Amino acid sequence: MLTIQGLSYAYSDRFLFKNLSFDLNPGEIIQLKGRNGSGKTTLIKVLCGILKNYEGKISFFTSSRSDVQNEIFYLGHKNALKHDLTIIENLKYDFRSDEIELAKLKDALRTLGLEAYLFTKVSDLSEGQKRKIILSSFIASNKSIYLLDEPLINLDEESKKIVSKEINNKIKKGASIVFTSHEENILAIKDINLDEYQA
Amino acid sequence: MIFLKSFFSREVLIYSKKSSNVISPVIFFLICIAFFPLAISNDPKELSRLAPGLIWICILLAGMLSIQTIFKEDYDDGSLDLFYVRRFSMLQVVLIKIFVNWIFTALPLILLSCSMVFLLYFPLEKLLNLIGSLFIGTLIISFFGALAGALSLGRNSILASAIMLPLSLPVLILGSSASTYSSENITFFILLLLALLFFSVPIISIACIGAIRLHYE
Amino acid sequence: MNKILGSITLFYHKLGSYPWFYSISSKLLPISTFLAFMIFLLGIVWGIFYSPSDVTQGEIYRIIYMHVPAASVAQSIYFSLAIAGFVYLVWKMKMAGLFIKAMAPIGASFTILALVSGAIWGQPTWGTWWVWDARLTSTLVLLLFYLAIIGLYSSFDNKKTADQAVSILAMVGAVNLPIIKKSVDWWNTLHQPSSIRIFEESTISSEMLYPLLICILSFYLMVFVFGLMAMRTEIAKREMTKDWFKKMVKKND
To answer: What is the pTM of this model?
Structure first.
């Protein structure tokens, strides 16, 4: 569970968002909305601990005893893929997927239609396919909090449906998800429009 | 510990997959060295007198090219973000990245500088001094270069050079002196270089971590 | 004791406040400008017209009244930058970051002045514009550090990040400068001794010393004045849109 109280973030003296509060329980999903530059990506980065000089309180409660940061799956705007490595190598050294069994990862890759490219260098793939590599480690992972920044970007319609379904599966299993997207086809229980939290 | 090992092998894999990382500094180094005799003189006596300084300058410049971009790729593609998410110790990240970069870019240059005995008539009896001082000196330079790269992350590379080169001046002086002067002074210079290494590694590592953090505000 | 500590903390907090600094500096500026100018005039006139000429160098030595103060000021400014960098990083005092930004170009200018006046002095006395000795080399490197700080600052869009970056660089540079000086020293003693002895241990006569000290004092005052002006400009740039600044501008109109 994730609780946010009075969260504000300023970038060079200008507040991106101010006094933001919400709760996120297990099995809940929140969609962040807002126009460009309203701070959606920034909020995701603040939540997962990349940006630190925020004001307010962020608290996580997880059932497992392990470190909270290990319970977070972060999918950023950028894919964090190494272009000279193959898909398999990338997944092996990505800290989001290095603990997942290879069979599970391969299943996920198959779901997204990447099984033929396992040993292809990432630089030879299209932008959509690159996104799918990270999404496959998202599908195969088993964490309690997911922070996803534009998960569906660059995907074709069919893959969008597959990923949306997987997101729903995660929620059913009791994970909490915060995501940003301009898409309307993922069912979120709550919307947070950051335009309403401008200074 | 598991993280250390996996991160180390990740870095090694990335460097070994991209051969231009290793080859470009070598080419640059050889071109620089080849141009000096052509521009100055082909007199063996004069060249052997200038050799230590020339080798050191060329290694400094060749190393500069690759060390400055050490954090750039991880910053651009978002890998650094992930390190922060999982709260990996940035000290380990910085040290491993610098060390692997050193193995892949400085080490070939050090080995190659043995051939300067033929190309620049470098006196054979001083070769060991040269290699020894290069081993320590290039490590220190790598740290300065990493700091410059971290400060100017996502900015132009001339700026990084403007930061790195003045900082590297003591290494250049001590290193080239160590490979110029007769043996009784060598231990003095090598010890000074070692002292500089142990002095600068903690300071520069901490400064480096702070400098990377700057780009996440 | 507590009272003293309390007033020090109060002063520290005041020093960190832009409006307080802006108003106090506008009061300090006229008087310190006047003082700096008068003392400079006194030192320079005394030095050039009323002090005796040097036995060996003749009249040319009088450039000392520009050269030595400039060199001394150039070094002091750099170390003040490093201290400001430390204060900024440890206590997050905004004014310290602004101080670095404002002072770096001033320090660079004085370093150039020291180098140029040194070269002009060196030509007739040693027969060369430039010698690679420890002092000259480290002054040159000092200039490089100043330029690196200025360049690094201008490469950032965000002022806060820029302040932090130059703070780190200023501190690392300050640690490195003595090492550079020392290593050039070692290098120099090992090279074939240069034919000219530049800095011989000489005792300067008091008739020359007093105007020199006055000149040095006036240079520090000058730096104070320039610093105040540069910092005020920088505050104005950063706080242009703030209420207190608008109000003050209106009041002064």
So the answer is: 0.89
